[in-house]
Amino acid sequence: MPTPAHCPARLTRLRAAMAACMVLVLLLTMAPARALDLLRLDAQRSEQGVLLNFETRFDLPAGVEDALQRGVALHFLAEAVLMRSRWYWRDKELAHATRTWRIAYQPLTFSYKVSQGGLSQTYRSLGEALRALQRFSQWRIADPVPAEDDRHYIEFTYRLDTEQLPRPLQIGIGSQPEWTLRAARTIALPD
Q: What is the dihedral of CA 137, 177, 63, 75, to 10 degrees?
C-alpha cells in the first residue's frame, strides 16, 4: 500500500481538508455576538402626543456579562426621531427623544440595579434586570401631530451605549463585535 508521501493527490486533498477545518474553526471563534432582536415597535397618536411602544430581546454576550460582573455599569440607549417627509427638500426632524437605562451589579447583595432617570429598581437575577430594560410602553416622544398629514415616520434605535463605558475599556473593545448590541427600524406613524 502506498504511503501518503508517494501520492501527491492524496497529500493535496489532505492539506485542503486541514485548511478548510482551520478556516471553519476561525469562523466559529470569530462569530458575531448574538443579535439584539426588536420584537415589537409601534406608535400611536393621542391627545398627549405621539406615543411609542417597543420590546427587544437579547442576552448579554460572555465578554459583556463578564465586565458587568466585574463592576462595569452598562448603559442602554433608546432613541426615537419623528420625521416629516418632504418632496422638495430633505426630510424635516420634528422631535428627538432619548431614554437611557443603566444596569450595574451589586456584589455585596448579589443583585442587579437598573436605573432610569432618577428611579432605580433592584433585581435578584440578571434575567429579571434585562427584562426590565428590554421593553417600554407609552413613551411620549413628541407633541400631538395632526392626523390628516400622513407623511410622518419614526426612526428608532436601541443599543448598548459603549460611549458611557470607562475610557480604558472603550479603547479595548474597538475590535470586539460582541460589544455591538444594536437594533434599528423605521416605521410610519399611523393615522
A: -30
